[in-house]
Design a protein that fits this description.
By secondary structure, the chain is α+β, with helices and mostly antiparallel strands. The protein contains eleven helices and nine strands. The chain folds into two domains: 84 residues, Immunoglobulins (Immunoglobulin-like, Sandwich); 251 residues. Strand 1 and strand 2 form a beta hairpin. Helix 6 runs antiparallel to helix 10. The protein is flat, with a radius of gyration of 28 Å.
């Protein structure tokens, strides 16, 4: 007969905190988990309904209309894309062009709710290559101003323009990267110290691209509606992207963590950066700034040659098939084509900010990957991670990217 006492009865396994390892999720426990959320939602609703307890406001509405884009889709027509980035409704009352009130058509109601966007079509016989000032007046008399820098007809959305934009993206993104990768056979003949220098050079290239993309993202973010807080989105999305890629890399197979896998991740990060370059080129052509667009094409083409070196660096001890080189060049360069299309036809500051921020996170994660690769090679040689060789490589990479960036900026 079993005389086991209560104190000797088998106990349930417990965690370090003394709580049961398994919990039965009965409706009661589920309700206790949801109850704080319900109370919080009720409080938020009460605050909104009572304007924070103040009641109805007697002050004028807070109006903030952002002019996102001004294009000339055809002769004698101006299109203005706007978004209400303020907390209150805005009613568009009148439009001025070059100081004179002008007729306009609106695709929807004249009253825009917060974050609502609209397109104004203004039939205006503008003068080619002249500057035109646009002003939008709200019903309360607040004026929001924009400008057509050069009155040049915007690209039409036809097959010919799509093809020309694709060609621009191809020889801005894919061609220079492929040219840079042609140094692969030469770099393979380098000794261990030379290969370490090239890998460190890659870190310098990527570090410059990371900071450059971060700066581009912040420049675009300030044009995002204020209520979406674009400048805050940049570091948040970059951090989430970085952590996601680190998690995927850590939990993935050895093949994905191989030197070839590292090259593909470098190509992906550079591709997201080149998407931003394509956006800049497409937006320049869309706004009629042809000279600027051509200048950006030349500058980015020279700038991107060095990116091919960085992509090829991790596989200098490998012999990948030729198809891998084609895939790497396409992954890094083809996003420039998509960027030119987006910038030229459907540019959105919000989505541009999101893509550029993703690029920042991807590039930062790749820097970690390449640093690990340098560390593994250094341990084989019983050397330190940071030496004069690696320092010189990082510095040279930053210097090369800065020098080629001056071509774009200058």
């Amino acid at each position: 007969m079993d005389h086991t006492t209560a104190s000797e009865a088998p106990s349930r396994p417990e965690t370090l905190e003394g709580t049961p390892a398994r919990v039965a999720w009965t409706p009661r426990w589920i309700l206790l988990g949801i109850l704080p959320l319900l109370l919080l939602a009720a409080i938020v609703v009460a605050i909104i309904a009572t304007d924070g307890g103040i009641g109805e406001r007697d002050t004028p509405p807070i109006e903030d209309l952002s002019i996102q884009r001004i294009t000339l889709p055809e002769p004698g027509m101006i299109e203005v894309d706007v978004v209400n980035q303020g907390p209150d409704d805005i009613t568009i009352a009148q439009v001025q062009v070059d100081g004179a009130y002008w007729e306009y058509a609106l695709d929807g109601d004249r009253t825009l709710e917060p974050l609502e966007s609209a397109t104004l079509e203004i039939p205006y016989p503008g003068v080619e290559d002249e500057t035109h000032a646009i002003a939008i007046l709200s019903e309360t008399g607040v004026m929001f101003e924009g400008q057509v820098a050069v009155a040049v007809e915007s690209p039409s959305r036809d097959a010919g323009t799509f093809g020309r934009f694709a060609l621009i993206g191809f020889y801005v993104g894919v061609v220079p990267i492929a040219i840079g990768m042609l140094w692969y056979p030469f770099m393979r003949r380098m000794g261990s110290r030379g290969l370490q220098f090239v890998l460190a050079l890659t870190v310098g290239l990527l570090a410059f691209l990371t900071l450059d993309t971060f700066q581009e993202a912040n420049e675009v973010a300030v044009t995002v509606p204020v209520t979406l807080d674009g400048p805050l989105l940049v570091p948040l999305i970059a951090l989430i992207t970085f952590l996601l890629l680190v998690t995927v890399s850590s939990s993935n197979s050895d093949a994905a963590r191989s030197p070839l896998g590292t090259s593909y991740r470098i190509a992906l990060g550079i591709g997201l950066h080149n998407l931003g370059e394509g956006l800049a080129i497409g937006a320049a052509f869309s706004l009629g700034e042809i000279a600027l667009g051509v200048f950006l094409i030349v500058g980015f083409t020279l700038h991107n040659v060095t990116e091919g070196v960085g992509i090829a660096a991790p596989i200098l001890r490998e012999r990948p098939a030729l198809a891998h080189f084609a895939g790497l060049a396409a992954l890094a360069g083809a996003p420039a084509i998509v960027g030119v299309w987006i910038g030229g036809f459907v540019y959105s500051p919000l989505w541009a900010t999101v893509f550029l921020a993703i690029g920042v996170g991807a590039l930062a994660q790749v820097i970690v990957e390449v640093a690990r690769l340098i560390g593994r090679w250094s341990r084989r040689r019983d050397g330190a991670l940071v030496t004069w060789t690696t320092f010189g490589g990082v510095t040279a990479g930053i210097a090369i990217m800065y020098a080629t960036a001056l071509v774009v900026l200058g």
